[in-house]
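Need fresh eyes. Consider my entry:
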Amino acid sequence: MAASPAAAAALLALIALAAAVGVVADGSDHRYKTGEPVPLYANKVGPFHNPSETYRYFDLPFCSPEKVKEKSEALGEVLNGDRLVDAPYKLDFRTEIESRPVCSKKLTTEDVAKFRNAVAKDYYFQMYYDDLPLWGFIGKVEKGGKAEPSEWKYYLYRHIIFDILYNNDRVIEINVHTDQSALVDLTEDKETNVEFLYSVKWKETLTPFEKRMEKYSSSSNLPHHLEVHWFSIINSCVTVLLLTGFLATILMRVLKNDFVKYAHDEEAADDQEESGWKYIHGDVFRFPKNKSLFSAALGTGTQLFALTTFIFLLALVGVFYPYNRGALFTALVVIYALTSGIAGYIATSFYCQLEGTNWVRNLLLTGCLFCGPLFLTFCFLNTVAIAYSATAALPFGTICVIVLIWTLVTFPLLVLGGIAGKNSKTEFQAPCRTTKYPREIPPLPWYRQTIPQMAMAGFLPFSAIYIELYYIFASVWGHRIYTIYSILFIVFIILLIVTAFITVALTYFQLAAEDHEWWWRHLSSLATWPASAMHSS
């Protein structure tokens, strides 16, 4: 039975890597002939200063066909908020176009108001051409030195120009800009006739197809950004060294002397009056309160740690290249489902070691401990997104798919892991006997209470990774692209070391204060890192 969890973990790793190969293979590698159609999809629009707020492209009254054809999307793309539809522009391979009309449209007063509101919020559009992303603004605001928005001029761009680079029979790069002389005045609420135009220009390049994505990740590799990243690592390493020296001092000067004294002169040690952590040695391994919840939290945390590790492995092998639509979300859903057996095994095994009897209830609690709050948060956010018609709102079909994955994959693996944990027959072996009655805990100062201890436990790990967190948040809620996963992985390892060290130190101080209820305090100290780790991934 001891080998089965390791074998299961290895199997899960192979499955995750196989999924990664499938994601990589999904990338576009098309070759085109002159005049052959190249797929162009319109994705979404939204305010530039709030990238998480996006809407469907045709929510604005652009030129649209009678029936909008939607692209079939993977689960990760839908979770990412992508809603790809056929764009109204035709960009055939190596076919230049000059000022071709897209449509002539009469904008109603409502359409003008929609466009004006979008221009005022710096709306941009996003499209994909041969799986290459492109962006452009839909209009501009001319303030003319005036402070009042009512006195500003609002203009809509009606002529879009596509500049495309190719190498032999492959598309390498695409950029878009607008004709500043082709503007539509949206300042007043009145009907306006607009003729939308577009142009396409082709130019040959020597850039190989394999390097066409480097353009989107080059900003993360700029020298000054790399210097900041290396400064972050040095800062983290210094923190680790200080903690290591601090703990080494404690272990060498305090614990070692006690262990030597007890080993060589046990009788003399018994005659002496005990103090500090030695005084409560009969209460240290007393089982924690709410042991079912404790075991569930331990199992769920182990699963999240395994999930984070697998995500880092996929990132290091190059799966999450820039704008690989939905790859990260697909990996998160699939790997979380596959690692649910780990949570079931760890939680039930530890619960049985703590002499728990209702392991089925413990298993159900483990399955709901993370998914329950996540589901409630999703319901609230999805309701808000539906109310605002944002692309973050998940379609009913996608919700059904996620529920089926949880029902048919996550829950069965959780149960199998729980059964394996129950049958592992591992016993809790404390190094010393636990007394029958718990010893009274002396009054503790305020800074030794749970909340201040949690704050101190989180401060040092946060100080070790806060620089990387800036770049991560800038990519999650901004327009930056994070691609230096090797540095992020180093910082992640340092985060684990710092968290482990600070947890050991605070637990020692708690025991030295004769507070033997360390189980939940220890878990709360460890719980300060998963949020940062999941953001990093």
